[in-house]
Amino acid sequence: MNNLGQFLKEYAHQHNARIAYEVKRDFRTKKFSFADIYSLSLKTATFLQAHKLKKGDTVAIWSVNMPEYPILYFACWLLGIVAVPIDMRTTEETLQLFVTTSRCKLGFKSKLLAGSFPDTVTQSYDLEDLLEHVQPLPELDEFPEICPADLAEISFTSGTTGTPKGVLLSHENFLANVNALCQTFPFKAEYRMLSLLPLSHAFEQVVDFLAVFQRGDTVTYLERINQVTIIDALRKHRITSVAIVPQLLQLLMTGIEREIEKKGRKYIWSKLQAIAAFLPRWMRRRIFYQMRQRIGKHLQFFGCGSAPLNNKLAQKWEHTGIEIYEGYGATETTAILTINTPTARRLGSVGKPLPGIHIQLDPITHEIIASGPNISSGYFQDMAKTQQAFCNSWYRTGDIGRFDAEGYLYITGREALRIVLPGGEKVYPEDIENKLNAHPLVREACVVGIKKEEGERVHAAVLTKYPQKLNEIIRQVNQQLSSHEQILAWTAWEHDDFPRTPILKIDRAKVAAILAGHAEKIVVVEVAKNVTLRSLIAQVKKIPISRIKDTDLLATDLALDSLQRVELFSLIEQELGVAIKETGITEQTTVTQLRDLIKNAETVSEALPFHAFNYHPLIVKARVFLQNILVFPLHALFVPLEISGKENLPGLDLPAVFYFNHMGVMDAVCAVRALPIAIRQKLVIAATRALWSDWRQFFVEFWGSGFPFDAKQNIKASLEQTGEFLDNGFSILIAPEGGISQDGTLQPFKSGIGFIATHMHVPVVPIKIDPAYRDIFPPMDEALLENLPKCRKTIWVKIGKPLRFSKQVPVELATKEIQQAMIML
């Protein structure tokens, strides 16, 4: 295999119909098979060729992760075009420097990113719209000859200032690193990966893009990455493994421990953590089963890299039965040099070298030096830096390390970060940080050198919940350090986190500047959240932020309707990373009270109260069988049907949303009976939440395959569940009026049906029930006997033509057209 275009063809054909990528957009999950990726990559190559791009040209990509990203990568590589991916957190000024330096004429960016490409990019597109542009095009069938040494990518390293340092990565570099990784780490076909790290970085490209593509695993992408979206994805997408950086690992653990503390279970958590250290993995997973249910019971392990891992943090995860596999590498090594594996693992080390990779330590400085087919040829148009870092196919990493007797590599420091004391002694901050981070009262620490007149001084900034104990913490840690490593100055870091680089490493330069008083202090997080909440409300209501007061009532003063509430809660999840319980919002909730709910919110979305096992394939088959032999014949004794419009159903694109006029008790049975068995076998009914408060719950769930749709207090969770059913191939039956008609006339439709029609990307089909149905089952209350039929009468049921709406159609207009279609039947 000579290039990444051949790689695409080989493994796309090998895995064919398996799902390669999935992404949740709005309330639906879009899935792409390996065959889809191959076809779309060929069409995208046609698109690029139509823009006069040829082998050796460069294309800029500035975007969040999404399936279109790897599709664009593959399209470039099929044509020998060089991809120039740029981290989504890169400033527009730096972006322009990168793009101009690499002479990109075409650019793709995400709609979620503010800013634009420089004028040197003659044409740019939103990456989210890529498939819309390429779907009508033919698949490219002629390709240039691409050799292993041909350039595949220019990867600009994070945090670059001044002249950009672009790492040159060839097709051979990627293929060699991916093959070595797949030989060493046992990827399994059942793995489901969650992509959290930027696809602009070599680590993510190798691990969660190319390696899993070779193995045929499924990758899930998120439009927004925060605690809520991550934990929801871990659970709902049955994620087994995640490639992650230590900061995200800490973020997840902090969220878990915060919820445990809120529930008063901190003592139990601590005791179980201590006990788990002496238990086998299967027992650890058993005793922490409840915690794993919250974050995803299928989760097996995290692959961790890109920054030093706190050993204490790793142990916490290990004790829950979720394993940590730490690795090491750099962009210049096409991501991975060493890795821990299930059969060769040493916590605290970064593992052993991959096959074909050679690592040596400089005999004097102990700097790590590496060679192999994955090593870059150097830096883009920068001979001086290339000669400094690369020599005779060896790359000088700048990291200091040591091997143990069994060949495991340990990173002990970085030459560029070393602190030189007045006496000439050299101190590596990571050594001291490891000791600080191991202390039970320290969450994370950053050690920097603060320049004084006499020279540099070791200064520790410490994140801890116990700042009053910091002096004692430092005293205890100093006892473990040599004389020249002693911490002579320290600060309790008063913010929620340290400043970070684009790949979430601590930005030591900013920390040092703040500690030395040379930079403005970080804005207090709570103040930022207060401003953000008001700005989010202003965004939803399309009013100036100045018009929003803390005392405003959400329901009356701000007039937030149910769908605007959905939009607001979605924005709160996206921007603030918390899930608000809609049931906590009342008519009297103010902006201030909403802010308090945000502070105390959990990181898991609110769920609806129904039993998921009722939709298991075996239960579904049993239900359909019992409906056919018992429920429907019994209903037909009193309600014989005359059905028309069945000719509108053949060729219907399923799943679909069927909606009916609500005429009385059990009228949904009429709509279900009118549908063919092929649709009924995968059909669920959206019923009012009130039915889940008494004896009717079992009847609606088991006999009617219903689920609670709460349009008043839990609209977002209801829409989420609707989308999940549609994703799983279930059609939905719903009554848009929101209640039974009291006089037989059609009541105004709720706007939720218009939202579903425009945001769920499915056809909606009207089913009209004869108003005479009310003579058989008049509207009654919850009493069982009063819901029995009053007479026998033949009624008609009419099925209308399917309607489709794009997301661009206003919800109000869609709702109006959907109601009009019912009226016209």
From TrEMBL:
Which is a GO BP term held by this UniProt record? fatty acid metabolic process
Q: Where are the transmembrane segments?
A: none
Q: Which family does it belong to?
A: Belongs to the ATP-dependent AMP-binding enzyme family.
Q: Which InterPro entries match?
A: ACP-like_sf, AMP-bd_C, AMP-bd_C_sf, AMP-binding_CS, AMP-dep_synth/lig_dom, ANL_N_sf, Plipid/glycerol_acylTrfase, PP-bd_ACP
Molecular function (GO) terms for this protein are:
acyltransferase activity; medium-chain fatty acid-CoA ligase activity
Q: Which residues form a coiled coil?
A: none
Q: Which residues form the Carrier domain?
A: 524-602
In Pfam terms, one family for this protein is AMP-binding_C
Lineage of the source organism?
A: Bacteria, Bacillati, Chloroflexota, Ktedonobacteria, Ktedonobacterales
| The protein, known as | AMP-binding protein
